[in-house]
Amino acid sequence: MEPVLMTSGPYAGRHVLVLQPEPDEHEVFPFLRLPAEIRNMIYSLVLERPGHKLYIYGKNSGVINTLWLRDDGAPRVQQHYSSSLMRVNKQINVESIPYLFSRHTFDFSDSTMMQKFLEHIGPERIQSLVAVHVQKQFRTTMRKAYQLLSPAVSLSELKLFSSLYHPYYNTAFLWPNALLPLVQAWCTEGGRSREDVMSIISMPGAVRGFCDQHGSFCNKQLTVCVQKECAYDEFYKELREEIFKSMDLVEAKKQAIKSGTPVKTRAGRKTKAIDYSGMCGDEDEN
Ligand SMILES: [Zn+2]
Fold first, then answer.
1. How many folded domains does the chain comprise?
2. Residues whose CB is under 5 A from ligand 1 (ion)?
3. Range of 237's domain?
């Protein structure tokens, strides 16, 4: 910027420097030359909503809608929110990801929306997720949806509120199969222990039953009930056992391959390919 010689007015004869608060069209604010601490403060101010969770819902047509809700269920104060800063360039995107994805709970209306959303944001952002809630489960999408969470090795809370959409259908037996790929990924790629992984998963909606004193119990009920507690304990115990059994089976297969023992299928033929993922497709070996 060059000083300009004023030829008229009160500053005539003087050199002045004109500072423009609004940048010219060709001028760009040097955001990336700001110190990292300042950039982080800006990311935080723009992208963080303390005390709020992001509710994700939509239609099967593919539209993904988001809504900020208060964590405590209190009415929400209407606030402008824009994440367009994240789309400025690659560096800003990478730097800002945690401020949206690691600082809030992501609450999905159902497993189908969860699948759509996770496919949309991709593994890099999924990796930053720390808390996920899922309301309804659909049989057609639950397994895929939970498998997509595999990169989220820092997740500390996975809460599944309702069982399958059908309210009277016992779905407990579906869960080991639906969660196995995710638990395996968190153990092998995330380096977590099985117990640690299982301890972050809670499924208040997966257990249904009946108590003489309190009537039927299911998701979202807060009544203190010993029978309900027992039903939950029993459910988690079975879930853990089923998943760990499948994982042991995969481990045994791997060991057998390593030590050169041919693994036979039930039909007695040698396997021609090893499935290191432990599970593939929807075939059920039982
Ligand atoms: Zn009871």
1. 1
2. 211, 213-214, 225, 227
3. 32-258
Q: Is residue 19 part of a domain?
A: no
The candidate with the shortest Cα–Cα distance to 156, out of 113, 106, 109, is: 106
Reported as a single tens digit per residue, the pLDDT across 33-71 is 999 999 999 999 999 999 999 999 987 677 888 889 998
Looking up tokens 């969470």 gives 149
Mean of pLDDT values over 154-168? 75
* Kind of pairing between the strands at 105-110 and 209-211: unpaired
Q: 109 in a domain, yes or no? A: yes
Distance 220 CA to ligand 1 centre (A): 15
pLDDT tens profile 105-142: 999 999 999 999 999 999 999 999 999 999 988 888 98
**CA 59–ligand 1 middle distance (angstroms):** 37
97 inside domain: yes
